[in-house]
Amino acid sequence: MCDHRTVGTTGRRSGDATAAEVVVRPYESRDRPQVRHICHVTGYMGEPVDWLWRDTESFADLFTAYYTDAEPESALVAERDGVAAGYLLGCVDSRRAWSPAGIFGRHFLRRGIGFRPGTAGVVWRSFGDVIVDAMRRRLPPASVYDERWPAHLHIDLLPSVRGMGVGATLMHRWLDTLRDVGVPGCHLETMGENHGAIAFFESMGFRRRGVPSSAPGFRSPTGERNTVQLMVLPLSTEGRGMPEEGRRSRT
Questions:
Q1: Which residues of the chain register pLDDT less than 70?
Q2: Do residues 80 and 22 lie in contact, with contact meaning Cβ atoms separated by under 8 Å?
Q3: I need a labelling partner for 23 at 20 to 30 A (CA). Which of 48, 171, 219, 224 fits?
Q4: Which tens digits make up the pLDDT trace of 62-71?
Q5: At the top level of CATH, which class does the domain 5-234 belong to?
Q6: What are the domain boundaries of the chain?
Q7: What is the pLDDT of residue 2?
Q8: What does DSSP say about strands 185-191 and 151-157: parallel, antiparallel, or unpaired?
Q9: Residue 7 and residue 169: Cα distance in Å, rounded?
Q10: Cβ distance 33 to 12 under 8 Å?
Q11: Residue 180: which residues within 8 A CB-CB, separation 6 or more?
């Protein structure tokens, strides 16, 4: 991925960038602080997550560190006026990705998120939710890895670049890359209550797989439990036509 692609304010691709256009380009190390910032200020269904998880460093590590630090070649940013305003963070083989539980545990021990104001509530609520879900036998799967769609992605945009076709450009760029290297499919997870995101991903060809699973610790601003919806997209003829409820491999 070495080309720069511009997206006009109408969502149409253009050859000459202007101040109002967004340039989609490969991630660079200088983008890391801004990517982490975007992650936190869009972390709850596109809105700031600080009311739920105030500590930017631990939250950004959970959702961006692997991609920026271990697989930066699979990351894209959408730049406007010289600053990243959105990103797509990809992983070609999800078995390589760092365990969220491991990142969580590291921050629990080293950063004290279990006792830090602004994170302690969600941390201990997560433990409680897991215990309750285990008793009710409704724990989320240990892994959503499946060899039919081994790649996955995270995508977030600041409000300033939404509604311009930027998200679709990022998605097409990533999916084209996966097709070029022969990856059979891609998956993603989004909040089951994020109907706008689900509709967008469905417009990109993804389909919902299974029912939403619980998201331990996460609540809406009014206190309802949040869920996570798995979505998948076969990219090869071998993956198309697979039964909806097929075998799911775990690692």
A1: 1-3, 5-6, 8-20, 237-251
A2: yes
A3: 48
A4: 999 999 999 9
A5: alpha beta
A6: 5-234
A7: 55
A8: parallel
A9: 8
A10: no
A11: none
Token pair 């949040």: residue: 226
Distance between CA atoms of residues 38 and 67, nearest Å: 14
Strand residues in 110-206 grouped as ranges (E) = 151-157, 185-191
Question: pTM of the prediction?
Answer: 0.86
Residues 187 and 151: beta-carbon distance below 8 Å: yes
Residue 198 one-letter amino acid: I
**3-state DSSP helix/strand/coil percent for the chain, to nearest 5?**
35, 25, 40
Give the tens place of pLDDT for each residue, 22-59.
999 999 999 999 999 999 999 999 999 999 999 999 99
Alpha-carbon distance 237 to 235, whole Å? 7
Rg (alpha carbons) of the chain, rounded to whole number: 18
Nearest Cα to 229, choosing from 45, 94, 105? 45
- Contact (CB, 8 A) for 35 and 77: yes
pLDDT at 20: 59
Q: What angle do CA 91, 133, 207 make, to 5 degrees?
A: 40
